[in-house]
Amino acid sequence: xQKTWNNKAWFMVLPxxxxxxxxAVIPLMTVVNYSVQDTFGNNAFFWAGTDWFTDVxxxxxxxxxxxxxxxxxxxILAIEIPLGILIALNMPKKGLGVPVCLVLMALPLxxxxxxxxxxxxxxxxxxxxxxxxxxxxxxxxxxxxNNVFDAWVTLIVMDIWHWTSLVVLLCYAGLASIPDxxxxxxxxxxxxxxxxxxxxxxxxxxxxxxxxxxxRFMDSFMIYTEPFVITGGGPGNATTxxxxxxxxxxxxxxxxxxxxxxxxxxxxxILLLSWIFxxxxxNSDAQT
Amino acid sequence: xxxxxxxxKVVGADTHIHPTNLVLERGSLNVLLGPTLSGxxxxxxxxxxxxxxxxxxxxxxxxxxxxxxxxxxxxxMVYQQFINYPAMTVYENIASPMRxxxxxxxxxxxxxxxxxxxxxxxxxxxxxxxxxxxxxQQRTALARAIVKNASLVLLDEPLANLDYKLREELxxxxxxxxxxxxxxxxxxxxxxxxxxxxxxxxxALNQGRISQFGTTIDIxxxxxxxxxxxxxxxxxxxxxxxxxSGAGFQRDGVTVLPVPAHLASMAxxxxxxxxxxxxxxxxxxxxxxxxxxAKIIIAEIAGSESFIHVDxxxxxxxxxxxxxxxxxxxxxxxxxxxxxxLMVFGSDGRAIxxxxxxxxxxxx
Lengths: 288, 364
Fold this sequence. Notes:
The structure holds two protein chains of two kinds.
Chain A: H1 8-35, E1 37-39, E2 45-47, H2 51-58, H3 60-90, H4 97-106, H5 113-123, H6 130-137, H7 148-176, H8 180-189, H9 193-221, H10 225-230, H11 242-252, H12 256-287
Antiparallel strand pairs in A: 1-2
Helix pairs in contact in A: 1-12, 2-12, 3-7, 3-9, 7-9, 9-12, 11-12
Chain B: E1 2-11, E2 14-24, E3 29-33, H1 40-48, E4 55-60, E5 63-64, E6 75-78, H2 90-100, H3 105-118, H4 134-148, E7 152-156, H5 164-179, E8 184-189, H6 192-198, E9 201-206, E10 209-215, H7 216-221, H8 226-231, E11 238-245, E12 248-251, E13 254-258, E14 269-275, E15 280-281, E16 290-302, E17 305-312, E18 315-322, E19 332-337, E20 343-345, E21 351-352
Parallel strand pairs in B: 3-8, 3-9, 6-7, 7-8
Antiparallel strand pairs in B: 1-2, 1-4, 4-5, 9-10, 11-12, 11-14, 12-13, 14-20, 15-19, 16-17, 16-19, 17-18, 20-21
């Protein structure tokens, strides 16, 4: 029997291919194109090879920003994941409290990034902001504009306020999927509250926690809008994350080559770290 | 001895358990038989102490344990879902109840290995439950219940999620496993066949009421009311509403079925006549059998048996026949009812007379 070729299939996937090409492949290739060339204007490009990559990787600016990113993501994950679990564990399981809590939890997630930034920017101002003014009135030194520590605290508290909800909602969904019989069985065994958490709830939440962890890592590692609105990368370079550095290079200085190289390196770092986290976490899943 | 004294369970506006009295002896095997939502699980939760009865009291060996927490009682429970600690190995799962009760290491190890051997889990002790088949997972849960050595063992449809072969295997082993312990064994099921195979005593449960409690085979043969008879029939019980008049059960003055000897003394009047599907036949089982004209609705062939749905005297009945009977729908046939096994219920649903003794029921 002769094999029949169905060319209709190609026709069906064509829209997706075109869409992906325009939204991902072509922009990415443009960046790759810039990263290996130099230009002096006039649309004249010269081959630069791996020069820009070497430049970026040898600059202190890059390593400093990367460290800030890693520190920020580390702090965010260390606080948001346990806090999210804790809140999810204490959310009501039935009754009117469920929709009320869910809506309250979802609210911060519905606010656009730059609005969140603006809210906290105003909130923390020493002259008119509720938080900044109160702190000043209480005699506590707080000024995110010129104090590095205060700037970091503001960004971290803001991110916790904005994104812990995501962890809570994911964990809550994970908890809701545990059949009641598990809790009954634990009760009959006389298992402690801690044992129930450690041996039933935590293992059952593992999958959603992995997703929460990855999402929060990727998102916090790519943070841009909020520090841009609140601190603009300052004081000094104290909150200049890779993303802010990238925009400064690309748009501020219009150094397309180094900016393209930096964005590719940035992208590969996120990809690599996410892959490592995923592999480590799913491996430990298979072992236990 | 577990005694439920006049207990009820009301949740909001719903009455889950109507006033119930039940006495279960030590070392006994008790089946709670009833359809889904009949209150089997509610009753078990009350027995275990997971729920507190709204009214009434629960006594264990004469002691009132109504308000006592479940972890302070000696209870083990196995569920329809396979409930084990997901992150622990099979060994740790089986050991968990003993660890909580603070047994020493050597005892735990000995008991775990004994239970694992009994439940054929020895090769899987180092695996986690999710890497086991459904049957092995449920065996793990059962092993946990065994090592607990509880005085009350509650099994809530433990075999419902297993495949047929495993079910038969475990069903055979289960009563033996717990029989030696001298504990009270309660087994909830929706299947009359399972109750009959387990034997022991049965409480027929319907809409939160125990309609009858007694020896399993006794309840099957002599249900005291129509609800129990219906609960304890699979395939469904065949019924027809008739009026007893003299020597015949009549409708519109025409005799549909003759009154058999064991019911000769019953008073005239309206009643419901019932009989099991295997007491309806295409061939004459006994010289006293009654003959009825009928029309075939559909014949379902289930391996060596056929379930034949028929329309007779305006009622839809099921007939269980051995062998393969591939009969076309709408075929007119002659049916035989083994009147020796007729059950008759009054208009209040109470049984009148009962099926004649000495004739054993054919199969389940």
